[in-house]
Design brief:
Layout lengths: L1 H22 L10 E7 L2 E3 L3 E10 L2 E4 L5 E6 L6 E2 L4 E5 L2 H36 L5 H33 L2 E3 L4 E6 L6 E2 L6 E4 L4 E8 L11 E6 L4 E10 L9 E8 L11 E9 L5 E6 L4 E3 L2 E7 L5 E12 L2 E6 L6 E6 L9 E3 L1
Helix pairs in contact: 2-3
Amino acid sequence: MKKIYTILTFSFALLLASCGSEDKKIVVDNTPAIAVKVSPIEANANSPFLSVSGKIQAANSADLSTRMMGYVNKVHVHVGDKVRKGQLLVSINNSDLQAKRAQVNAGITEATAAYTNAEKDYNRYKNLFADQSASQKEMDDMTANFNMAKARLEGARQMKNEINAQFAYSNITAPFNGTVTSKNVEAGNMANPGMPLISIESPGSFEVMAMVPETEISEIKKGTTVDVLVKSIKQIIKGKVTEVSTSAKNTGGQYLVKIALDKTDANILSGMFTTVQFPVERKVKSSMVLVPTDAIVTNGQLSGVYTVSQSNTAMLRWLRLGRTFGNQVEVLSGLNAEETYIVSAEGKLFNGAKISIQ
C-alpha cells in the first residue's frame, strides 16, 4: 500500500508541475501593427450664423378620406402612380345611398303632384275671391295650402342635393395633378370617416419645415433667402422664408418656419432631413466638436469613430451626431476635446487591432 501511495503522490506532483509550466507560457502577438494617422479633437467655435434642422415636404399634398362608412369596392391606383385632377382613386360601396336616393326621388314626385294641385286650387280661389265669390277665410286656407306644398317640394329637392353630396364621398377623386405617395386601404376593407385612404403629392415643388429656438426667432423675417443643405445628397439649395410662426404653444418652445425651395434638378424627396442656415448672427454663442465625415464608421443606424487606447490599439467609439457642415459633422456626445481619433489607416481596422501612429 505504501508503494501505491508513493506512485500516486509522484504522479500528482508531475501533473501540478506540468500545469504550472503551461501557465508560465506567454503568447506573443506577432500580428503586424496597422499604420494609422490620428487627429486631436478640438472644440471649434460655432458658426456665427444661425443653423437649424429641418425636414423637406411637398408644397402641395393631401391625405384623402371619406365622410361615410362603407366597404371599399376597389382601389384604382398604386403607390407611385401619377394621377390627374378628378381621376377616380377609391370606390366605396354606396348601395344604401342608392336606396335613399330612390326614396328621395319618390318623395319629389309626390311633392311635385301635391304642389301642382295646390297651385291650381290657389289660382282658382284667387279668381273667385277677386269676383267676391269666395270668402277671405277660404282664400287664406288656399294660400296656406299652396305655401305648404311649395315648401315640401323645396325640402324634397334639398334632400336630393344632400344625397348627391354624399355620393361624392363614395368616389374618392384626385383634387389636383400629382403622385400617389401612400395607400392605406385595400378592396374589402372598411372605410371609416376621417381615416386617410390615399395620400398624394404634387411633384417638383418642395418646402422645408424648420424649428427655430425662441432666442433667435425675432431675427427671422419673411422673404429672407437661406441656404438649405440636404444631408442625404450633400447638396445646398437656395430657399426663401415664406412663413414665420408667432406661437410655440404646441411645438415645445420651438417656432415653426416654412421655407420654399427654389426649383432644382437635385433628386430631393419628401421626408429628407436638412440643415437650414439663416444669414443672421446667432445671439447665443456656443462651441461644438466637428470631425470629418470620412472618419465616421457606420453600422446600421449606429455611427462612430476609431480612437486610440492606452495600449496603442484601435477602439471603436459610438457617437451621437448632429448637423452636417460641408465635409464635417457635429458630435453631440461620445468624444471629449482631449481625445484623438483615427482619420486614416493602411489596413482594415477592428476593435483591439494593433496600430502604429504615423
